[in-house]
Structure formats: structure tokens, C-alpha cells
Design a protein that fits this description.
The protein has 8 helices and 7 strands; from the N terminus they run βαββαβαβββααααα. It has 218 residues and is of the alpha/beta class. It has a 5-stranded parallel beta sheet, with helices on both faces. It has a two-stranded antiparallel sheet with strand order 6-7. The two termini are 40 Å apart. The mean pLDDT is 90.
């Protein structure tokens, strides 16, 4: 499988099934996409900002929901394997992505695995085991949370820095040297994580040194 990041912010996600798994998927997707959960019953675990629709569709009914919502992604999370299979087939026929929550892997055409993710501002790191070991994905995600502290602030800083250096007329090789020096500077990382008042000066010192030498800051 090839890992990809997919922007669903303007899309619809259809979750079939209102059990604990469906609830977890709904919470995940409703943070970034319009999410509709269709199920005859709903667990008490919370569904985030998802829209809950009480219905018990059969295979034909699922097709009606697909035609009505035109989802970009369909999550098959009912406790009926045949219904999940029919929903997955119908979704693929309509060009939608499919997440089979009742199966490990997701090797079928159009199948996707939802990875464990760590977010730090605009920085997103995903961990997946192909559906074979979800517990390992969760463990690695927790370990990465500490490692990524300050990464969001670094990403925002580098974005601003690239624009400023380009507008100042510095040649590409000098810009690359400055950006590399900043991202590899332990002093800058420390300043970003602590948020101290010396942060601007630390960053300016690293940039100035890199622009002068065309190499990395010490």
C-alpha cells in the first residue's frame, strides 16, 4: 500500500454502523469533513460533530444513501458482513474510497486503511501496520507525540522564513542554507519548545550565520 494524505474538507464521509467502531471513525472524520452516520442504533461513545441518521438500510437502501450523499469515502462498520460487502462494492462502483472497518488490511481496489496520526500544527505524522497490528500503531503514535513537540511552530517559522528570504532577494543556495540551518539547529528547537523571549534573536543569529557562510549554523 502507498501512504497518501487526502483532503476531505469539502467532501462527505458516509459511516455505515453506529457501534463503537463506527463512533470512533465518525469522531475522526467529523473533525475535517462532513460526516453522516447511518445506523438503526447508536452507541453511547460519542460521534463528534457527525450527523446521525437512524435507518436500517439493506443493500438497495445503501445504494440510495450513496446516490443521495455522493460520499468521497464510505466506512463499512456494521455487524453484517454481507451488508458491508455490498456497501463496499456499491461504493467502489461509484468511485468512492472504502474503509472496511470489519476487516484488517484493506487490500481491495479502492480500499484504504485509516492510520494512527499525530498532529502538531500543520505537521501530520501517520503510522500504519496495514491493519495487522493496531496496538503497535497506537504505541508508536504515543512515542512520536513527544518527539514532535515544537514541530508545528518550526513548520510555520520555515514557511515565513522562505517567503522573507525570497522577497529579500537572496539566491536559492543561500535560502536553502538558511532554512537547513534553522531546522537543524538545536538552539532553535529549544527556543520553539520553551517559547522564551529570546526566540527571535536565536533564530536571527542562526539565519545570519548561514547567510554569511552559505552553510549550516554551528
Amino acid at each position: 500500500m502507498i501512504p497518501l494524505l487526502h483532503d476531505l474538507s469539502e467532501e462527505t464521509v458516509l459511516v455505515l454502523g453506529g457501534g463503537p467502531v463506527g463512533a470512533r471513525k465518525a469522531r475522526r472524520f467529523s473533525r475535517e469533513a462532513r460526516t453522516v452516520v447511518v445506523s438503526p442504533e447508536f452507541s453511547d461513545e460519542g460521534f463528534g460533530e457527525a450527523q446521525l441518521v437512524r435507518d436500517a438500510p439493506d443493500a438497495d437502501g445503501v445504494c440510495e444513501w450513496l446516490d443521495r450523499l455522493e460520499p468521497a469515502l464510505v466506512v463499512c462498520a456494521t455487524d453484517r458482513e454481507r451488508l458491508n460487502e455490498a456497501a463496499a462494492d456499491a461504493a467502489r462502483e461509484r468511485g468512492a474510497l472504502v474503509n472496511r472497518a470489519d476487516r484488517s488490511g484493506g487490500r481491495e481496489s479502492g480500499g484504504v486503511v485509516v492510520p494512527a496520526t499525530v498532529r502538531e500544527g500543520p505537521v501530520v505524522v501517520a503510522v500504519a501496520t496495514g491493519g495487522t497490528a493496531p496496538a503497535l500503531s497506537k504505541h508508536l503514535r504515543k512515542r512520536l507525540e513527544g518527539e514532535l513537540e515544537g514541530a508545528g511552530a518550526m513548520a510555520e517559522l520555515l514557511s515565513e522564513l522562505r517567503t522573507e528570504l525570497r522577497e529579500a532577494g537572496h539566491p536559492p543556495e543561500r535560502r536553502r542554507a538558511a532554512v537547513t540551518a534553522v531546522v537543524e539547529s538545536s538552539a532553535v528547537w529549544k527556543a520553539l519548545r520553551t517559547g522564551g523571549s529570546k526566540r527571535p534573536q536565536v533564530v536571527d543569529d542562526v539565519i545570519e550565520s548561514a547567510l554569511e557562510t552559505g552553510g549550516e549554523a554551528p
